[in-house]
Request: fold
Amino acid sequence: MDGYLDGQLDPIANQTIEQHLRECGRCDQAFKTQGSLIRAIGNATPYFKAPAELRERIQSSLREETSQHPVRNGVPGAQIQFHKRQPEPRTIPLEIPWNWLGLAAAIILGAIIVLNVVPRLQRPGADQFLATQLIASHARSLLANHLTDVASSDQHTVKPWLDAKLDFAPPVIDLSSDGFPLIGGRLDYLDNRPVAALIYERRKHFINLFVWPAGSSTTGATNTMSRQGYQLLHWVDSDFNYWAVSDVNANDLQTFKSKFEAQTSHH
Amino acid sequence: MPRYDVNKIAMALPLKTAHASQTEDLSDPKIVKFVVVKKREEQAKEEITSFEEAMLPHLDAAHNLAKWLLRNEQDAQDVVQEAYLRAFRSFNGFRGTNGRAWLLTIVRNTSYTLLKKSHAVDLTTPFDEEIHATGHESVSPATILEHSEDSDLITEAMDALPAEFREIVVLRHQEGLSYKEIADIAQIPPGTVMSRLARARAKLKEYLAARMSK
Reply:
């Protein structure tokens, strides 16, 4: 009954009830009474509007909040880079209880520990995990007939497509003349972020080249891995992280990398 | 044959100097810091403005819900302020279209945190959900209806309801929210919203009848 009176039932249920109400006077009467009661409750329940000073309190607390934490959604790189130069505000409003400050200090200390210690402890494991993700992604791209989102050997088609979909502009280079024709591009999700996948062909074998912006923690070292019959090659330049994954032999992948790097350095 | 055209160099010089000083400025940490701080301030301002535009129109709804849950003006204001701050902190993550329902969810959760802290409600005690015969059936529906327009009496009857029933009456009757929206805010299935609402109304009716037969 309440569902009907609140207008929250589907059309078929509504119709069934209306049909019945036309035939049954007692129900009709009961529904009418309940409907009046529902309206009366709505009308008679006092509505407590917010006093004007509450609006002002909220507005000033929002401004205080931002002056204490100046950047919350800025460019992450900028935040990290300039963090050390930024002196912490010395003035602490008196209305903050000390236990909150203690909590805040604990959270900051915790964050420092997590940011500094944990990555060092987990670096090898994280790489292994990433390698597993990369192989899975490569294998899936071949299995599910979803190798490319944009199939084109023209780098000037693939690049704008990827640029529009991502928050970075990956280098896209056709290496046909070096024996690695570009097949197309795809979006993928790795290492907790959307990444660009460039697909190259090498004598009927495919190479997935995953590209995403280089974080501050990465080093310039080249890293090779061989797992489950797949070759993985990782390198970093000033802007990007590259992971090439394929079933071609390790030498071919090295050649691919050097050709790719030679071309990117020209750009 | 001279390798350089002297005139060309002279013309190029001022440009080059301007360019050089620009790069110098950007490498000066103080200026970089100043630019960054300015940008942050602007960004913070924009952030506040867009948040306020989206959320301040729901201030009355937020206050009304908090007041009905906490039954105390000071607590209600504190909770609403806290809820707005919480909402602001996670506003970047908010991608939905129903800002009112999102805000009311935060107001509700903040209210319950306070209620639990002050042990004003024991949420583990199940409310007597069955409507028992109370001996007030003799009061005619017309009489009940007449008294249901009495605001003081309705307020009393509302106060007698447990908070988790009261909030559903508020959201449905005063905010006109759908069962689905109420379900999202109260984190219960829509079917439970319907049954709680029916029980709440029956309880209100029963309360009014009891008052009249006295």
Observations:
- The two ends of chain B are 119 Å apart (CA to CA).
- The first helix of chain B runs from residue 6 to 27.
